[in-house]
Fold:
Amino acid sequence: MKSYTTLRNFIGTMAQNTKSTTLQLFDQQMNDTNRYLMQKYYSNENSRTTPTVAQQQFYDLPSNYSKMKTVTVTIGNLKWTPKEILTRREWDELNVFPYYSDIPNNYFIWNGQVGIWPIPSSAGNTITMNYKTRVPDLALADYTTGTVTLTNNSKTVTGAGTSWLTAFLPAAGSTSNLNLWLKANAPLGDGNWYQVASITNGTTLTLVQAYQGVTSALVTYTIGQMPLLPEDFHDLLAYRPLELYFATIQPDANKHNEFKALYQEGIKSMDDYFGSKSVNVNLADSPPSLNPNLFWQA
Structure:
């Protein structure tokens, strides 16, 4: 995996330019590339639930909302999927007069909220918003101060000489919007990256998945902010800024073409990789599906 700090250092080294103003420009280009790729692919999907309130039609969207995928309303064991209304005019035509029912037919996004029609008549049913999140900027430097104690098959990490709450404010509680990962360095740690689920205080944090290495204390470590991209494609966030740098700020046709080719090759690999959410397939080369019932057999 490539953290923000790793990518930034790589770009500066390859450009042979580590001036602060240039690195800030690289940061901007890195984040622009990250947002573009996240718009194209689906690594930043999330869900949020909220209960219905009797006779309340509109509900706040998640704070990190970018684009809605689906809305569902769960009533007991039944899950209803209302259809989206795309225009204000059509929505207003539906709402000529108040109409109440627990079974939803449509939803409409307006002014930071999602509206349900008919208006929910009962409280306590579950509205689920499945959406793409906004992509947070990569801006947090790697943190390596102090040491950690890790326990096999435990999600709790304890620090010594650490100040995690100060370093990652305002990340108290869930850190999913920052995409922080922790690596316990070998030889005492297993050397693998684990996503940080939450930070309790300056010396305690919780991992998303339990630590799989042996129980160890006084382990050196790194906490890094990672792109939302799958780790095989983190390099793309360096290749694109370098391509632009050698095309404009420091013109060099050979280097420009080299990084452009690396970026375009990576984009093609991502197209193949994201052909399915569960397996790596190349949709462009997939044969068409055939109906066996169309063929006569002797």
